[in-house]
Design goal:
Chain lengths: 102, 289
């Protein structure tokens, strides 16, 4: 998958709440539960299905955190792949309709 | 043919009066005895009609709670019930088994509470010096032990299922909080649902001062819990059966709110009565707001 073509959107099957600076995400279908760190939260919140992942990493991650851009992109791809395997994020080569409000 | 007249007993748990009606005098007598201490003269907000089968039903199989149209359908081997949340009425088909009755009532309360920002928690709870403490944990962690070790001035709310409601959802406050810090907190109520102790809780309520997740160890110690761990443990111990995304989302929001407002700690305890000194001296604040 060419990395500049990745689009991510939050699934409608999840519930998410910020608490004490952490984002907690639960898959309502099977009650699996995830805690996101600051960088992952920034990507999760920006996952609107229309903004390419590379743009999210550039604007939301590299702008706000002291990270190497290539490493940040690789970590972001790994992160979205993992969350999509749990039904938290939807990943596509095409723009997606975001299933949940921001 | 003239239908047998229905008679009802109003059972009020958690400040929510529900009329339980039946044509069977023997069953009415059973539920009056079972919920003695929780019988109420309040005007019922809800009604459950019981129709009894003459054959004994097996309580095997998992409970299923799902929406069917605007109603909830509750099913297990030993009962089948319908609950209409709009009219506040439901019907139950079961044999004259008190355990089926308890289960149906718990599920209906869990549905009502989920809509009102409360929940039933698999935990013991008790009132100490006017404040309620909840004790949860895996099976064998010490919930019943904590209640057995309680000094005489402790009021037992339950050794098995705690009833939790937000303060602002209580129009008729049974036990108003004098602590302004608890104004937006939660109350714990007594329940008739008992575990190993086989003893119903007292029918009263108090503002919740803390929820402890229990572990037994060589000494008494209170430790903080990271917020994610607190939410995860809380969700794991909330009694909830409905297959419904909207209600699960609501429950998750409630769990996060509870963690933000109520001190939640890990309590490692050596099983003797000194652990209650530790609890009496606990004056923690929420770590997760």
């Amino acid at each position: 998958m060419p990395e500049n073509c990745i689009y991510v959107a939050r699934s409608s099957a999840i519930a998410a709440r910020a608490l004490a600076g952490e984002m907690m995400v639960m898959n309502s279908a099977d009650s699996t539960f995830f805690t996101l760190n600051e960088v992952a939260t920034a990507i999760f919140q920006a996952a609107d299905g229309r903004t390419p992942l590379r743009e999210i990493v550039r604007d939301r991650v590299c702008e706000q955190f002291d990270v190497d851009p290539e490493q940040a992109q690789a970590d972001a791809e790994q992160f979205v792949t993992e969350l999509s395997s749990h039904g938290i994020l939807l990943v596509s080569h095409q723009p997606l309709a975001s299933e949940t409000p921001r | 043919m003239i239908a047998a007249p229905r008679k009802a007993a109003c059972v009020e748990i958690g400040g929510i009066p529900i009329a339980l009606s039946t044509c069977d005098e023997g069953f009415l007598d059973l539920l009056r005895r079972r919920y003695d201490g929780f019988l109420s003269s309040s005007r019922p907000q809800f009604e459950l009609e019981f129709d009894l089968t003459s054959t004994e039903l097996a309580s095997d199989g998992d409970v299923r709670v799902r929406r069917e149209g605007g109603e909830w359908l509750l099913q297990r081997g030993d009962f089948r019930a319908r609950w209409d949340p709009r009219s506040g009425r439901g019907s139950v088909r079961q044999d004259a088994n008190p355990y089926s009755l308890d289960s149906v009532l718990r599920i209906v309360h869990s549905l009502i509470l989920a809509e009102r920002g409360g929940f039933l928690l698999h935990s013991a709870s008790a009132i100490c010096d006017g404040r309620a403490y909840l004790f949860s944990g895996v099976s064998g962690a010490g919930k019943t032990t904590m209640t057995r070790l309680a000094p005489a001035d402790i009021t037992l709310l339950t050794d098995e299922i705690s009833y939790v409601r937000p303060n602002d959802a209580r129009p008729n406050d049974v036990c108003p909080s004098s602590d302004p810090q608890n104004a937006h907190g939660y109350h714990a109520f007594g329940t008739p649902f008992s575990g190993e102790l086989a003893k119903a809780g007292e029918n009263c309520a108090a503002p919740i001062a803390a929820l402890f997740f229990l572990e037994q160890g060589p000494e008494n110690r209170v430790d903080e819990l990271p917020s994610a761990d607190a939410v995860r443990r809380l969700m794991r111990n909330i009694l909830f059966f409905a297959e419904d995304k909207g209600l699960v989302d609501k429950l998750f929001a409630t769990a996060c709110d509870f963690v933000a407002r109520v001190p939640i700690r890990r309590l490692t305890f050596y099983p003797d009565s000194r652990v209650w000194d530790e609890i009496r001296n606990f004056h923690g604040v929420p770590e997760h707001a």
